[in-house]
Amino acid sequence: MSEDVVIQQSFGDRELALVRSLRYEILRKPLGMPPSGTIFPGDENESTIHLLALSESKLIGCASLFVDDLDAIQLRGMAVASQWQRRGIGNRIVETAKEIAISKGKNLWCNARFPAIGFYERQGWIQSGPIFNIPIVGPHIAMKWTGNSENNVGSVNKVIK
Fold first, then answer.
1. Measuring CA to CA, how many Å separate 161 from each of 11, 54, 74?
2. Which residue in 57, 134, 148, 152 has its CB near the most CB atoms, within 10 A?
3. Which range marks the domain in which residue 80 is found?
4. Can you tell me the distance from the alpha carbon of 61 to that of 74, in angstroms, rounded to the nearest whole number?
């Protein structure tokens, strides 16, 4: 992985247009979905943290962190530009999310697409719910990361589409 990649935090809607553009290219366009499919409830909240992976000031990866009513943080909309995949960018984004969760005393959870399950498991996440289908997008499974502790902060068997 290139040494010039940095992970930066952005809050609310500061760089949201860039985040939505990358979400569209990687997560929605290949499925034939419209750009409006990149708009998530809570994206513009000041409490939402958008993680930006930047190389030479160009966005090459992103994920959004949403604090939910269970006192946990949902990781959502993670995407890495095609030419940067399999170079450790996603790992760095998830590690940053873990650091933020630890600093806030919270757990992380996500709804993982099937092809990403192994990625999250290698990062210490565990499956925490049944398989479910999101129309057009496909099968998912709820996963959680609890700071490698035995106790969970709330239940993370929640599905948000």
1. 22, 27, 12
2. 152
3. 5-145
4. 17
Convert the pLDDT of each residue in 55-86 to its tens digit: 999 999 999 999 866 779 999 999 999 999 99
C-alpha to C-alpha distance for 7 and 15, rounded to whole angstroms:
13
Q: What pTM value is reported for the model?
A: 0.87
What is the distance between the alpha carbons of residues 142 and 132, in angstroms, rounded to a whole number?
A: 9
**Which of 97, 77, 60 is CA-nearest to residue 24?**
77
Domain membership of residue 84 (yes or no) is: yes
Identify whether the C-beta of residue 62 lies closer than 8 Å to the C-beta of residue 78.
Answer: yes
Contact assessment for residue 47 and residue 27, using Cβ atoms and an 8 Å cutoff: no
CA–CA gap between residue 152 and residue 107 (Å, rounded): 7
